[in-house]
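Predict the holo structure. Ligand: flavin-adenine dinucleotide.
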Amino acid sequence: MTLQHTDVLIVGGGVVGLCIAYQLLERGMTRSITLLDKESELGRHSSGRNSGVLHAGLYYKPGSVKAQVCVAGARRLKAWVEERGLLINPCGKVIVPPRPDLDSQLNVLAERGRANGAVVEILDEKQLRQLIPEARSASGRALWSPNTAVVKPIEVVQRLKLELKERGVHILTAQQGWTARPEQQQLILADGTALHYGHLFNCAGLHADRVARPFSVGLEFTLLPFKGLYWQLKKDSPIQPRCNLYPVPDLDVPFLGVHFTPSADSVAVVSIGPTATLAWGRENYRGLQAVEPGMTASSLGVLARQYLANRGSFRRYVHEQAFLALPPLLLRAARQLIPTIRAEHLELSSKVGIRSQLFNHNTQSLEDDFICLNGQASTHVLNAISPAFTASFALADLILDTASSWMNLS
Ligand SMILES: Cc1cc2nc3c(=O)[nH]c(=O)nc-3n(C[C@H](O)[C@H](O)[C@H](O)COP(=O)(O)OP(=O)(O)OC[C@H]3O[C@@H](n4cnc5c(N)ncnc54)[C@H](O)[C@@H]3O)c2cc1C
């Protein structure tokens, strides 16, 4: 058996794992870094499939990890993208209440945003119409976030990979079937190579809970995979919003509601979504190609119990969001923001993603924040849901600040 050593082993080459590698180098903590991914190409999961929105930090409860890292992370990723001349659409974002009773939530979001360091402004109806003439606010008021931008997520992943390779990070792709030996600080690869590490970072996204298990970490969590389907406005649709248009979200559930997002392409494509429907498997992106029957049965059981107990406003989520994958319901949700949208303006987008959303069996609730847990010579990044893409550089620094005091590097 070949034995190799690496100071740091990162499992998962999405944006979280890539940014940890990047910041380890930037901070001069070590140059001996191996990043391992099960896919032959990086970016096959959330980091290459998300909306690409650099969130400005409006939604997150002050004191949460999300609130700590979102604003700084967005600023850093935006600068990083601009320095490299990658595509970016600095178009801003408008949030409108689809019902009059949601108007007061605009104040909550404005307060949260300001507390988190974001720039926000309340708009009246005339100002809203100047930004998006077709948009509707049920109360006449809207919230404006000028610093929200949109990038191409796959470009970010590919560029990070390229720069890390150039700087000497070993990137091992197509690594399936490895086993962890936490006691020996080793990963045994499928070809028999034993990879000894000083510290392991588990950034395995949709599989992070599974990777954590042999380390006896995060045993209280189960993944509930929520699929996000997108539609888009046809090129010849007369309605083409130039900036992001979001509904006031239900702050009790970790989904933002179906929204309009213009892409960062030179001729922007406006997507509508993502929906938040239970996926029948961690990677079941289309149809029934990767259904996991056991997982689906247990996920449905959890959802049914949540619904019956109406925990975390669960019934509202089910009634308002769970079935938006059905085109007439999606159209209805889109019309709450732009009433003149018609079915013939829309087409299904090829984009689809699945969120790595965790359910906590101890608290019987969906986890809303990022979770970073320590195991033997290891750090496990769980529940890396939105805005982990936006926040990735700042999240990596926060993780390294915590881990560096006890990382045992050579
Ligand atoms: C539909 C959707 C829209 C979103 N929109 C936004 C947005 O607009 N803005 C935003 O900030 N965030 C958004 N997010 C969230 C964002 O995409 C994620 O938070 C972020 O990409 C998480 O990155 P990650 O590196 O943790 O996970 P991933 O990108 O999933 O990377 C995990 C990697 O681990 C690998 N892996 C898994 N298991 C193993 C294993 N056993 N061995 C080796 N490798 C393994 C996978 O192949 C994968 O490459 C969205 C998410 C979804 C699903």
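The first strand starts at residue 3 and ends at 11. The first helix runs from residue 15 to 26.
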